[in-house]
Amino acid sequence: MRPALTQTAQFPSVSAPVRRAIDAALYGEALSADDGCALIRASGADLAAAMAAAAELNLRARPHRRVTYSRKVFLPLTNLCRDRCGYCTFVKGPGQAGAHTMTPDEVLAVARRGAELGCKEALFSLGDHPEWRHPEMAEQLDRLGYPSTPAYAAAMAQLVLEETGLLPHTNCGVLSRDEMAALAPWNVSMGIMLESVSETLFEPGGAHYGTTSKSPEQRIATLEAAADFGVAMTTGILIGIGESLEDRVDSLIAIRDAQGRRGNIQEIIVQNFRAKPSTRMRAAAEPSLVDMLRTQAAARLLLGPEMNVESPPNLNADGCGAYLLAGNNDWGGVSPLTKDFINPEAAWPEVAALRAITAEAGFELRERLALFPDYAASGRWYPSAAVAHRAGELVADDGYVRPESEVR
């Protein structure tokens, strides 16, 4: 029998299930769903031990104690979508106030200003195939000269890369292989949130009721298909939307399994639901800081030291520093120019403030591309020569943004 590790020995009142899970994770063993459930219910001494173990696992892969972020512009290419989720204010109907699809001139104007401000990433967010639901979108795409929203997104990513040097990262929605093939050459990475594998969310009254693009199977398939085109992917879970704690564990394990099959998941996001007045879920309770910490610790212990784990700092401005004590190593994208169009009520922190928060927790803030340093340094995850060339101009051999290009 292997000996118990010192991390749990420091906490003699830790429960046996949590002790087993922590020791297994620190020995490099794959945790079971039961292990994950013990961790994600942790409180008191169990939570303290889980957070300490998650922090140690993070440092095993990152002894330099660096925490990363990407300096970006946010381009909401279109806020029309084929679906309406119960928590979303980003999506509008064609006749609704605020509905908009950006023109190429609008895209370039924002991207150029972002490049002037030292941004490296152009984050494209858009609704999933809105032309399948809204004839107005199909007509607009036809006027622009494109057969589909993904085709338009691919063209705009190419335009931004070639005209401004910003490296696109497209939050792509569910894609066919042909759509992925068109987008891949112009994106340094892409993203699709798994959110949850919970079937309950599709029942009447659930967050995903009536949606067709939130199928876990389709989202996992999009993540895995991207590997065939050399695309590193960001994914994650959205907590507090009606899922159970067990659902969270099952979602994290589904991501772990996909990563084991294809190896192209560069990051997982543990994102907290925020209630918004104009949505069906306006009265739903938001996850607490403790809930975030135990979910982050469980994510790190389930997914291991190498995975990059992020939670957005603007969605918990007062408590986000504690995330770094639960195994997180990344803040995601932060913009000096554009707001968070998905959570417009939550302002981005200034980089100087984020640097101070990071230092207070005992870490150094470093800038990265939308492709994480470990993936950039490997040289494997560049989907085209154009992307590889531009990324090579911006990053050093260790995959971080060159010090002379980093905005302080």
Question: Can you give a write-up of this model?
Answer:
The chain is 39% helix and 13% strand. It is α/β, with parallel strands linked by helices. It has two domains: 6-61, no CATH class; 66-405, Alpha-Beta Barrel (TIM Barrel), CATH 3.20.20. Strands 1, 2, 3, 4, 5, 6, 7, 8 and 9 form a nine-stranded parallel β-sheet that branches. The termini are far apart. The model has no long low-confidence stretch (mean pLDDT 96).
How is the CATH topology of the largest domain named? Answer: TIM Barrel
Overall, the morphology is globular
How confident is the prediction overall: mean pLDDT?
96
Overall structural domain count: 2
SSE layout:
Elements: H1 6-9, H2 16-26, H3 33-40, H4 44-61, E1 66-78, H5 104-116, E2 121-126, H6 135-144, H7 149-164, E3 167-171, H8 177-183, E4 189-191, H9 216-227, E5 233-239, H10 245-262, E6 265-272, H11 289-303, E7 308-310, E8 330-334, H12 351-360, E9 364-368, H13 373-378, H14 385-394
Parallel strand pairs: 1-2, 1-8, 1-9, 2-3, 3-4, 4-5, 5-6, 6-7
Please describe the structure with a list of short key phrases separated by commas or semicolons.
single chain, about 400 residues, alpha/beta, TIM Barrel, 14 helices, about 40% helix, about 15% strand, globular
Question: Gist?
Answer:
By secondary structure, the protein is an alpha/beta fold. It has 14 helices and nine strands.
